[in-house]
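writing this on my phone so excuse typos. first protein, seq and then structure
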Amino acid sequence: MEKLYLARGQFPPNFFDGTASRILSLQRADGAIPWFDGGVVDPWNHVEAAMGLSILGHWDEAIRAYDWLIDNQLADGSWWGELGASVPIDLVKATFDGDAPAGEPPVRDSNFCAYIAVGVWHHFLVSKDRVFLARMWPAVSQAMAFVLSLQSEHGEIRWAAWDSREADDALTTGCSSIYKSLECAIYIARELHEPFHEWAAARARLGDALRHKPHRFDRTWESKERYSMDWYYPVLSGALRGDAALSRLSGKWNIFVESGHGCRCVSDEPWITVAETCELVLALLTTGQPVRAMELFSWVHKYRHDSGAYWMGYQIAENVPWPEEMPAWTAGAVLLAADALCGVTPASRLFLDVLDENAAQQAKRFYHR
């Protein structure tokens, strides 16, 4: 299939069933959703896949995925960056004592840990299940406490909790994602009448760093600006809005977007990735460009397998899928973009609407206790 254009209010009948089936086929009995067959599990991509399940009505399986996060959360509110193939599952079930698994550095990625808030709020918007929201609250609250323990006085958030100089740095993409996670955490707290004033203030400081303090990112390693995510994530997350967002997307459009194919993962390789393309669709929608977003999304279906799953990416110079994997999180990204374009579920505007920083801070007087 070369192109697919979606209608408002509904998905093409049964078109995305195979996409969800890919996620379901990978989900393990304990609820974990690995990247692909035999692959690792990480909290961020696990949540991305779970959101795809929620969109197509597989709520029981989505809830099992969130229960897995509760079961494997460490005592400090974090999760190991990768679980399964690289870190034994039974190890992370034990109480975290600060020691790394044998042979592994003690990496707990702040962005990975924050993303639970996005998934939990997304599932609540879809299902209106307040019992689920309340049950997830302790895990969300502990995760955000861990993440914000890594925020500097300048506003940026360290990429990881790791006793190393390499961890004392921040990533534009990661911090942008955390910015959205904090927004969703605030919404959860407001719904449950829990305090959130510290989160609102921390989000405002982080937004200020993303907009005005580029020197606080990539301080100890080579710049990540060759990655497309560093380009569009400040827009996708809502940290950049209005003219600033439009200017950022237009500034590198011709560098990262290959017409008729999609968004490159990195600027210097002819490698289109489906997830990055779908995320760029969301970024376009946040800036009020639905026609351009629909056209971009129409290109990714040439990377759709006969099963309905999507290849991770495509090497357009050699005209082959690469790598030959169809990740669960790629399927999740496709479904999130499709829902945002079609408006099928009540969560379809999750990435399109942005909570104003000032409004969030001013609202604290109504909920702080």
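second protein below, same order as before
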Amino acid sequence: MDASPLLKVAGLVAGYQDQKIIDGISFSVPNSCFLGIIGPNGSGKTTLFRVITGFLKPWEGEVLYQGNNTSRITAADIAKEIAVMPQGMESTFSFSVEELVAMGRFPHLGRLQKLGKRDRDVIRQVLELTDTEDFKDKKLFELSGGERQRVFLAQSLAQEPKLLLLDEPTAHLDIGHQIRILDVIKRLNRTEGMTVIVVLHDLNLASLYCDRLILLKDGFIFEEGSPSEVMTYETIEAVYETVVLVNKNPVTKRPHVLLVSKEQQ
């Protein structure tokens, strides 16, 4: 059995203009892992995500996918294996939901090649999986925020990725939509072995869905491990500089963070 990591991040240093944001970050992601990247605002989560996805070039270090430096892999080849869902995706074109989802099949098509039966089967499956089939003929601007998020997730899943990268996929969504989206991703992680790296702001969602967590502070990895190892009250208080209680979720037995206001201390 191949024990080599699917993705390896080695000595990443990156930032914008002359401002360094992340400094010397290294970690590995094994196949079928559900990895969450957490940390306070300004800790470097989005910058790290942009480097991993290739949207930002690192000053130092490298990102390896299956042992190959991603900077030396063509965009077309990467798109066949890796799907990216950035934060706040929008479309200014009047495409229908089904047309947008179908774009996820483009990496698997040759030049001027039309969608085949297998492509249409995949599109139908991901529409059903993400509960977007009922409005597949609607335009994106006709949908709610939660519906649009599910459409872009469906588009990413239509690529049939081995690795799915998501930046705050539950941002601005109500708790019902948050659970629906993460349930879909977790199901594919478990049943299909899809590896997931997700940036999350909500600590309790990260604890609930992720196998492993990377906690960032000031551009460094402050702690890495399972939710139980990372989400102790001492660690959360040190990184977020606020008083919290960390109990076990009575259903999942995973850590659950409770906030304590200054008035209640």
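Residues 33 and 175 are 24 Å apart (CA to CA). thats all i got for now
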